[in-house]
């Protein structure tokens, strides 16, 4: 009958909406935000930080920003407040979040992720910088927006990826390595481009498999899909790869599990993942490409505390150790000399690392 | 004399009751997480009623309302259009790209706005039409096909919205978007809320127009009657001469065309380009249509409520209250409304039956009109 069919559908949809809602809440119930030691100091700096979707707990990009803020909080006399994004929010919501922070007296305000940029004149960060001219802002991963009170913190991900690509090629016995990106966007393609260039610099005929776990069509869900990361990595290992580099945020754990299961190696990203994963996965992590969002955030906050603020683009590249590779676990110690040679050549400008993958 | 009141009372009781139930459940959740519900709700209301918030709520409810109406058109015909998401994403991309395309630059601004809106409606209708054709010719359930078309549409948008095809990327940016629309086809805001620094998106006029058209076409025309009749009882509609297949096609096309309008307030009035952040309102729109019980005014209230909750959630985070509480509220409100209406309907039906039974056995000459024939 019509009625019963309709009711069933209604109920199903209702339940689905609730389930979606609660799923989105999973593991994000934190509102970690200590207040600094209120030891009567009048000049307490209040730092506001706005995350993009994903937020804390990805053991990678956002957590690196959180770590930088945490370090600043423990060392300096500051208060911090971290706000997370809603799913399906518009740019207006992002603007509202930034304004909430600056109007609440938070200065500086740090926007983590390029989604806060939008249009260079009317996007969230540009509008917020205009609405709160006395507040200093910083945005991570965007250099398109400029304002007198905005610092753009960007990274040369391709340079760090070049080094781990070289490391992968030096370590690979099969002459076949893999790259897994969390989402097919230009930012992640920089990782692939550098990795491929690094691998080919060591061994010109090396095979580099590259796969992406998601596209913008599924809202870059591949940054938080360990199961998909695992099956994709297993496929690569089965096709002959013996080292896989992942730039896939929270999906990285799946890649490490696949490496463990197949007895192969993997490369971490953003944070030194040898130290962030569970102990049983440590031995598969050959090295990690470090993107020092933590350093960038820490330096920025520290500089603000000392009254120093530089508007415009600050590039965190190999030269300033804004990117690099980790040596925890000691698996790349034997090729360290070669990697440091590459590092020097990049810094000296003898090697220019491409930002776009060769195959488009 | 009391008849309209008696009829209106359960109608009002259900949504208000549902809201109270939702508030109660959220309060329990807040208490479990060691928060004071009173503080949470009062700060939400305080922040949500600031002038700046009111503007933002109105702006957000534009898209929610249009999406809700798109879903409701399907509901009236007993069709489940779950594909609003894919329909409006494709529509927005096509409208944004063509609107900014060089070969349309000669069009004067106002005319170009019309063309952009028209393109969006046609593309939305086309994408819904695929599902309708599958249903009419092959009997494929629209629930399945529209969900699958969401994925296909999403992938199509992802493929096209790259720098190789329709997307452009500002220097130093990591985000891809279509080129900005020419300035003369931006629609200006309306300073509806006094004391607010920002203006209400001008597309709200179209949203109101959609609501009026929805009320008129479905409630006051023969087409609307046929549509509702086929939805309520297809067999009897066919028997009375309605072409049920054609009604399926029309309803789906109409629903898709309205869905195509969902992204337009952002495109014309705010962002002036299609960006990667467009999308995701399709499922919310289903909740809004359910909450609004398919009525033009009900959907508007539901959209405003939803937008208010979304907006006021921002302040919770700042006060160290988990803002996910708002998601719980939204979910429980929808569930409670569905359950409350079903209960109310059953009770009133039982009451009617009892009254009918009583009148048959002992006719009451004073109230003959109250008994349904």
From TrEMBL, chain A:
Pfam family, one: Bmp
Alphabetical list of CDD domains matching this protein: PBP1_PrnA-like
Cellular component annotations (GO), alphabetically ordered: plasma membrane
Sorted UniProt keywords: Cell membrane, Coiled coil, Lipoprotein, Membrane, Signal
Ranges where the ABC transporter substrate-binding protein PnrA-like domain occurs: 52-355
Location, primary (coarse class): membrane
Topological type in the membrane: Lipid-anchor
UniProt feature coiled coil, ranges: 66-93
Residues making up the signal peptide according to the UniProt record: 1-24
Localization per record: Cell membrane
TM regions (residue ranges): none
Family annotation (PROSITE patterns): PROKAR_LIPOPROTEIN (PS51257)
Membership in a protein family: Belongs to the BMP lipoprotein family.
Name of the protein: BMP family ABC transporter substrate-binding protein
Source organism: Planosporangium flavigriseum
Gene: bmpA
UniProtKB/TrEMBL annotation, chain B:
Name of the protein in its database record: ABC transporter permease
A single GO molecular function term of this UniProt record: transmembrane transporter activity
Transmembrane stretches, start-end: 12-33, 53-75, 87-107, 113-134, 143-161, 200-218, 248-268
InterPro entries per record: ABC_transp_permease
Localization in the cell: Cell membrane
CDD domains in the record: TM_PBP1_transp_TpRbsC_like
Region of interest (Disordered), residue spans: 352-373
Entry keywords, A to Z: Cell membrane, Membrane, Transmembrane, Transmembrane helix
Cellular component terms (Gene Ontology): plasma membrane
Membrane topology, as annotated: Multi-pass membrane protein
Recorded superkingdom: Bacteria
């Amino acid at each position: 009958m019509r009625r019963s069919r309709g009711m069933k559908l209604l109920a199903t949809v209702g339940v689905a909406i609730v389930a979606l809602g609660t799923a989105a809440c999973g593991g994000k119930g934190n509102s970690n935000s200590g207040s600094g030691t209120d030891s009567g100091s009048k000049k307490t700096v209040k730092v506001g930080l706005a995350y993009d979707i994903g937020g804390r707990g990805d053991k990678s990009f956002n957590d690196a920003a959180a770590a930088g803020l945490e370090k600043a909080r423990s060392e300096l006399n500051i208060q911090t407040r971290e706000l997370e994004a809603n799913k399906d929010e518009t740019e207006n919501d992002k603007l509202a979040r930034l304004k909430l922070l600056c109007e609440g007296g938070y200065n500086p305000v740090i926007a983590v992720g390029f989604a806060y940029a939008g249009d260079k004149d009317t996007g969230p960060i540009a509008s917020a910088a205009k609405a709160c001219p006395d507040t200093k802002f910083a945005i991570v991963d965007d250099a398109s927006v400029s304002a007198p009170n905005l610092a753009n913190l960007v990274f040369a991900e391709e340079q760090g990826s070049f080094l781990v690509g070289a490391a992968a090629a030096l370590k690979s016995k099969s002459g076949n390595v893999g790259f897994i990106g969390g989402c097919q966007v230009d930012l992640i393609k920089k990782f692939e481009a550098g990795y491929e260039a690094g691998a080919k610099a060591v061994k010109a005929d090396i095979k580099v498999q590259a796969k992406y776990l998601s596209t913008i069509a599924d809202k870059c869900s591949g940054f938080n899909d360990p199961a998909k990361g695992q099956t994709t990595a297993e496929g690569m290992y089965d096709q002959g790869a013996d080292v896989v580099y992942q730039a896939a945020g929270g999906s990285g754990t799946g890649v490490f599990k696949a490496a463990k299961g197949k007895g192969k190696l993997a490369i971490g990203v953003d944070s030194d993942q040898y130290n962030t994963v569970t102990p049983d996965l440590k031995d598969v992590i050959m090295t990690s490409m470090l993107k020092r969002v933590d350093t960038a955030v820490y330096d920025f906050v520290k500089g603000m505390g000392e009254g120093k603020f530089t508007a415009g683009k600050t590039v965190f590249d190999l030269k300033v150790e804004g990117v690099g590779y980790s040596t925890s676990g000691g698996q790349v110690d034997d090729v360290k000399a070669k990697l440091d040679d590459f590092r020097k050549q990049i810094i000296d400008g003898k090697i220019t690392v491409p930002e776009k993958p060769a195959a488009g | 004399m009391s008849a309209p009141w008696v009829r209106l009372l359960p109608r009002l009781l259900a949504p208000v009751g549902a809201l109270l139930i939702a508030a109660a459940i959220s309060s329990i959740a807040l208490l479990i997480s060691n928060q004071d519900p009173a503080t949470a709700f009062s700060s939400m209301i305080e922040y949500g009623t600031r002038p700046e918030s009111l503007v933002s709520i109105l702006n957000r409810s534009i898209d929610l309302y249009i999406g809700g109406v798109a879903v409701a058109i399907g509901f009236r015909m007993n069709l489940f259009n779950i594909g609003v998401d894919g329909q409006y994403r494709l529509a927005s991309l096509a409208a944004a790209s063509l609107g900014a395309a060089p070969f349309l630059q000669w069009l004067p601004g106002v005319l170009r706005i019309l063309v952009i809106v028209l393109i969006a409606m046609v593309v939305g209708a086309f994408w819904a039409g695929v599902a309708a054709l599958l249903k009419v010719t092959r009997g494929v359930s629209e629930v399945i096909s529209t969900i699958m078309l969401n994925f296909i549409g999403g992938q199509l948008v992802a493929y096209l919205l790259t720098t190789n095809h329709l997307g452009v990327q500002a220097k130093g940016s990591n985000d891809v978007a279509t080129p900005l629309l020419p300035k003369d086809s931006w629609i200006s805001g309306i300073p509806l809320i006094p004391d607010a620094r920002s203006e209400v998106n001008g597309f709200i006029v179209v949203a109101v127009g959609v609501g009026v058209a929805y009320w008129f076409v479905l409630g006051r025309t023969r087409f609307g009657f046929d549509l509702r009749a086929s939805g309520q009882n297809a067999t009897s509609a066919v028997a009375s001469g309605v072409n049920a297949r054609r009604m399926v096609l029309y309803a789906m096309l109409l629903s898709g065309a309205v869905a195509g309008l969902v992204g337009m307030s952002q495109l014309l009035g705010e962002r002036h380009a299609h960006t990667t952040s467009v999308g995701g309102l399709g499922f919310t729109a289903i909740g809004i249509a359910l909450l609004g019980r398919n009525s033009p005014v009900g959907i508007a209230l539901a959209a405003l409520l939803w937008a208010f909750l979304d907006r006021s959630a921002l302040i919770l985070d700042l006060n160290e209250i988990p803002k996910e509480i708002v998601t719980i509220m939204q979910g429980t409100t929808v569930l409670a409304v569905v359950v409350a209406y079903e209960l109310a309907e059953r009770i009133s039906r039982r009451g009617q039956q009892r009254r009918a039974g009583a009148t048959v056995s002992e006719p009451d000459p004073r109230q003959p009109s109250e008994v349904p024939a």
